[in-house]
Amino acid sequence: xxxxxxxxxxxxxxxxxxxxxxxxxxxxxxxxxxxxxxxxxxxxxxxxxxxxxxxxxxxxxxxxxxxxxxxxxxxxxxxxxxxxxxxxxxxxxxxxxxxxxxxxxxxxxxxxxxxxxxxxxxxxxxxxxxxxxxxx
Length: 136
Fold this sequence. Notes:
Layout: H1 2-16, H2 20-69, H3 72-81, H4 100-115, H5 119-127, H6 131-135
C-alpha cells in the first residue's frame, strides 16, 4: 500500500513542486475523503475509470507506435524477423522459450493470483449486490 500511495504522491510532487511529504499527505487525504464519503462504490467507480484510461492508453500506444514504424505490416515484419511470431508451438519442453503450454499455465496462474486470491479484489466482489454487478 505504501507504493500505491507513494507513486501518485511522487508524480504530484514533480508536477506541483510540493514536498514529497506534503504530496503523500495530500494524496492520502483525498483518497480517505472520497472513500469515507463515497464508500466502496466510489472505489469501484474509480477502478472502472482507471481501467478505461489504461485500455485507451494501450490502444493509443499501439496506434501511434505502429504508425511511426510504418503500419501494422511493418510491425508484423519486425516481429517475424525477431522470431516472435510463434503461435502454435506445442513443444512440452520447459526449456523452450515460449510455447502454448507455458503461455496458458503462466496466464492462468497470474490471473488467478490477481482476480481470485487478492484480498482487495475479493472485498470488491463481496461489496457488489449481485453476480452480474461483480462481473461488470
